[in-house]
Amino acid sequence: MGTAQSTHPSRSRGRGFPVLPGWVRRAWTEPGGTWRPASRDIAIAVVTTVIAVAGTYGEAHPTTPGTYFTGSHHLPHTPTAALLLVVLGGAALAWRQRYPRLVVCVATAATVAYTLPGYENGVPLLLPAVGLVTVATRFPVRQSVTWALALTIVLMAATAANNPLGRYSGGFWIIPANNAVALFVGIAIANRTYVHSARLQAARQAAVDAQRRVEEERLRIARELHDVVAHHISMVAVQAESARLTTPGMPPAGAKAFLGLFALGLALFDPLAVRQHHRPQCRGDQQRAGQFERPQILGEDQHGRRDTGIRLEHTGR
Length: 317
Fold this sequence. Notes:
By secondary structure, the protein is an all-alpha fold. The protein folds into two domains: 22-190, no CATH class; 219-292. 60% of the residues lie in helices and 0% in strands. It has helices at residues 22-29, 39-60, 83-91, 100-115, 126-138, 141-161, 174-246, 252-267, 271-277, 283-287. Helix 3 runs antiparallel to helix 4. The radius of gyration is 43 Å and the shape is rod-shaped.
């Protein structure tokens, strides 16, 4: 006895993962408008912004500031309004698929504006890196590397200008590693997308080639059948006409039957070609030339009715 399978609509087959409702799937794949980004990009940007704001606020208000700020370094006062720069950098990520380089510039400008007053900038440094991932997936490697180097230099210079943890302390040396990881992730995504596209193209080309081979084989078989059948029909027609003309003492009914068979064989070909290549050669054939348009088959009368030769008798019982 087999076990009954679950048919709950909220579970996918074989995995047990919840299936998203239809409106969620449509909203996730919705491409957006002229200026409005896609719903998926908006959702990702919102989640990223919330995480960045929460992390930045936690950095500005640590529970144990003495652990990080010692000696001459003191915890800077970060006003809540400064978090709007983090919100700006995160909100710009919603347009990263349409304007990736512009988004990197906006996120970098917001991060630099937040960093120069001396605020702790560990989390805001991640926002330009997210945009850099999209740049690396959309542009060649050389351009992506150039953008990564420029972004690294700008962020390191802004951090060293007024670093609350010391000029070369804190996240200063994390910036190159952070941007390098973003660059490599973008290149890996681009390569994976290229390989996937190449496989799909190869599969489509293989399907096209298979269909072409099937059609060629069908044409070959049809051509061979046509040649073989046409050869046999032409031989039957020629033999029928030869038998009608060479058989001595043939009754008129037999001659008429052979003539109908000959005309039927020729009518299977192009009637124009029949009239051009098989013109009547004698006076008697000239009278039969019109029969090639609609040959009278053996046993048919002038109305197209055919006599099969079978007689049915009814005996009433």
